[in-house]
Amino acid sequence: MATRELPTGTDDLLGRIEDHVAVLTFNRPERRNALTDGVYHGFATALPVIEEDPDIRVLMITGAGGAFCAGGDVKRMNERNQAAGEPRPAAAAPASIEARVADLRLRQRSVSLALQHLGLPVVAALPGAAAGAGLSIALAADLRVAAERAVLVTAFSGVGASGDFGGSWFLTRLVGAAKAKELYFRSPRLTAAEALALGLVNDVLPDEGFEQAALDWCHQIAARPPIALRYIKENINRALDNDLGTCLDAEAVAMVRTMSTADHREAAAAFVEKRQPTFNGN
I want to staple 135 with a disulfide (CB 3.0 to 4.6 A). Which of 109, 130, 159, 168 is the partner? Predict the structure, then answer.
């Protein structure tokens, strides 16, 4: 398996490419991979590279050290809150609420919205806990696989927060409004098996060798024709917010385009010849 570097510009989010699968890894295991400005910068740096590389067909997002992502760094939040009560010079005054809102809007769009718009399948591989904004980012992926030991928790109500990074949008579409409200209000710790039963994850894999198993899971998708995968993602995303007529029209365009590709011709020939097709993304 050929491996090459995927630049992120930060050690908080590591990147590599394994054949046709790009892997982004949250890399703050000492803080359960809590989010930082470096992580946001890493996504903003890596996602355009992934989008433009024709050899990358699937993106897998995972975490180092046995966790996926704990979301916001609560220890850092507490330190900031404590410091807020101390006298400080005017030059060090905290940002206004309006400035903080604008900053969070940009960060959310650079991660959750960018993952939704990325022109290839995105798989979140959860080796352990996904909490708060970490869970929201996992939900922003197209698919999720979890280790048996993984735990999923919205967490926001436990820290007096309402939620961010699109978790309420994604969760409502996955489980319905009433269940989404329950998961946000009560914030239960869902096991991987419970998350699978609710449809929050697509598969549960053994703890032992989880990352390689998740990578193999992604490679199975990457073996499919990439142009078709891109249009399939667009079709299903469009179905969330549009009427049937709009979706039918768009499906017609996508169907004709995909059936005009070399990959479609290869698939038809392989079917007749009873062999495995080889797709080149053309």
Answer: 130
The rounded distance, in Å, linking the Cα atoms of 138 and 24 is: 12
| Amino acid in the structure at residue 109 | R
Q: What are the tens digits of pLDDT across the range 144-200?
A: 999 999 999 999 999 999 999 999 999 999 999 999 999 999 999 999 999 999 999
Domains of the chain are: 3-222 (3.90.226.10), 226-273 (1.10.12)
State which H helix or E strand residue 272 sits in: helix 262-273
**Dist. CA 150–CA 58, nearest whole Å:** 22
CA–CA gap between residue 8 and residue 37 (Å, rounded): 12
Predicted TM-score (pTM) of the model is 0.91
